[in-house]
Design brief:
32% of the residues lie in helices and 24% in strands.
């Protein structure tokens, strides 16, 4: 069967009013001032003097300004410029200024830098059109270009078009990528395979939904879908509608945000959704055998109303359906604020998640602290209480009056119950990790040297690093202390390293607070050094001071 060529149906010129709409939307506003060298006669002496001839694209005036010599720049060369008559400062190519004649904000370019045109702005607006009974989504490439004559003009070219044709979507393109550049055909070319290139569009020219009448996508409700979210995926939506027309029921009932987010997650899981992706004809998580919107999503009517009013996304829906026995639909928003994964851990521990969330909120209000007291802090306390064989069915134990005091007390009691680790083990372990010691940018890092030092670290920073003492001494983990170089005795941040992979497992400060920007930068530099040491150790093995392997005969003691 011969395939129909739909490319000839598509217009190569945009609809009237596209450029005007772009300008009214704040686009295509760039103006330029093109300049070149010139000579003018001095009225007093009659001699020629060097000057700069300028032309403004806004007022179309040509005028002369004082010459400013070229100055050195980062790439070793620069065009000469002119003197701004208002400020008296030199203005050169690539800068912005105000036109001395009309006062317009203009971009300044030397005539030599716009020899082949200079692109000032690029936009990819989308128009929705009805063409011979088909619905077309057409994306145009609109650019504003500065020319050597000192003007700025707008250029519109065909970019991508998607045409509904029965039960399929046909893709046509007006360009081809050539390495790092783009070549335009100035016409449409049809593609055999439809990939969705209009990903996450947010710039659609206003259109009349009446144009859908009489097309093969008359009942698709595309207008409602485009209005449902700031950025949408209309091509994939149309393809889904062609196979599952009942998707329009979700759109009509206000679930466009959820449908759009489902499309995003499904496409994103298969690759980066920022370039062309396969135009899928279905989306997971919807029961297509149902007709009623609530049943399509596996919800009751009341649950669906809340999902629509709070603009649920896919992760919200999945979380609620998985844990609906423990939470109500109106509580999903609070669970999201607390962290879905953390709330699920609380459910796994057999506790009421909403009671835990409200407890933490009261503690934060009562303590008036900016430290990281959250559900994870509470879970950490519960785990220590469990190790201490405390009754976690006792409400006073589970929800103490002061979580910080209870957390610190549990940490100390847990340490008191542990057997003392021999000093020899710690010394041996510390010597193994000594190669990772380092200092830079006012910070330094070194391994924990004793159980006592780890206990003191936990006391000072109010976290549970002391509970890692056995693992540290037995070589199961590696604990490091980050200090200010000018105050090496005061605890600052505590870091846990996976010595095999060179990956940081955690790095916490006071009351388990997150890294500061200073510590992040220091950690990144240190990790590069650590990975090089680990890589070198794997390749060459450990060597002693004489350059021999530790296992070589005759190695120095």
């Amino acid at each position: 069967m011969e395939e129909i060529d739909y490319s000839s149906m598509l217009p190569t010129e945009p609809p009237k009013g596209l450029l005007l709409w772009l300008k009214m939307s704040g686009k295509l506003q760039s103006e330029v001032l093109i300049y070149k060298s010139a000579y003018i006669n001095d009225l007093l002496t009659g001699m020629k003097e060097k000057a700069v001839e300028c032309h403004c694209s806004e007022c179309t005036e040509t005028f002369y300004l004082d010459y400013a010599p070229a100055t050195e720049c980062s790439h070793g060369m620069s065009h000469f410029g002119f003197i701004d008559p208002e400020s008296g400062e030199a203005v050169g190519s690539g800068m912005s200024t105000l036109c001395p004649k009309c006062g317009a904000n203009v971009k300044v370019f030397h005539i030599g830098s716009v020899r082949n045109g200079k692109t000032l702005e690029e936009h990819w607006p989308v128009t929705v059109q009805a063409i011979d009974g088909h619905l077309a989504l057409i994306c145009w490439y609109v650019s504003r270009v500065a020319t050597q004559d000192g003007n700025a003009r707008n250029i519109v070219r065909p970019w991508e078009a998607y045409l509904t044709a029965g039960k399929k979507i046909v893709k046509c393109v007006g360009y081809q990528r050539c390495m790092s550049s783009v070549c335009f055909f100035e016409r449409w070319q049809q593609r055999k395979r439809c990939t969705d290139g209009l990903t996450n569009i947010d710039f659609v020219m206003p259109w009349d939904p009446q144009i859908l009448i009489g097309t093969d996508a008359e009942n698709c409700k595309l207008d409602l879908f485009l209005q449902s979210d700031k950025q949408t995926f209309p091509v994939t939506y149309l393809r889904i509608w062609q196979r599952h027309p009942n998707v329009e029921n979700l759109i009509v009932q206000g679930a466009g945000v959820l449908v759009n987010n489902m499309i995003y997650h499904q496409s994103y899981s298969g690759g980066y959704y920022g370039q062309s992706t396969v135009c899928r004809s279905t989306v997971e998580g919807i029961d297509w055998h149902q007709r009623r919107p609530a049943q399509m999503l596996g919800l009751t009517k009341d649950e669906f109303k809340i999902a629509v009013s709070e603009k649920w996304k896919k992760v919200w829906l999945d979380f609620y359906k998985k844990n609906k026995a423990h939470i109500r639909p109106e509580e999903v928003k609070e669970c999201y604020r607390a962290g879905f994964s953390t709330v699920e851990k609380i459910i796994e521990m057999g506790k009421n998640p909403m009671r835990a969330i409200r407890y933490i909120d009261r503690q934060l209000c009562r303590l008036q602290t900016v430290s990281v007291v959250d559900l994870r802090y509470l879970i950490d306390y519960w785990n220590m209480a469990k190790d201490l064989h405390e009754d976690l069915n006792d409400p006073e134990t589970v929800y103490p009056q002061n979580i910080v005091t209870a957390h610190d007390a549990a940490t100390m009691r847990l340490e008191a119950q542990k057997t003392e680790i021999s000093r020899e083990k710690f010394v041996k372990r510390c010597l193994q990790l000594q190669r990772f010691c380092w200092a830079s940018d006012g910070l330094e890092i070194h391994p924990a040297r004793s159980q006592f030092e780890m206990v003191q670290e936990g006391k000072a920073l109010h976290h549970c690093v002391a509970t890692y003492s056995n693992k540290m001494a037995n070589g199961e983990t590696a604990i490091f202390f980050i200090r200010h170089s000018n105050d090496p005795e005061t605890p600052y941040f505590t870091l846990e390293l996976d010595e095999k992979t060179g990956k940081v497992l955690q790095n916490r400060g006071m009351r388990n607070c997150a890294r500061t920007e200073e510590v992040k930068a220091f950690e990144q530099k240190w990790l590069e050094r650590v990975k090089n040491i680990i890589k070198g150790g794997k390749k060459h093995g450990k060597r002693n001071a004489n350059g021999k392997h530790n296992g070589d005969r005759g190695a120095a003691a």
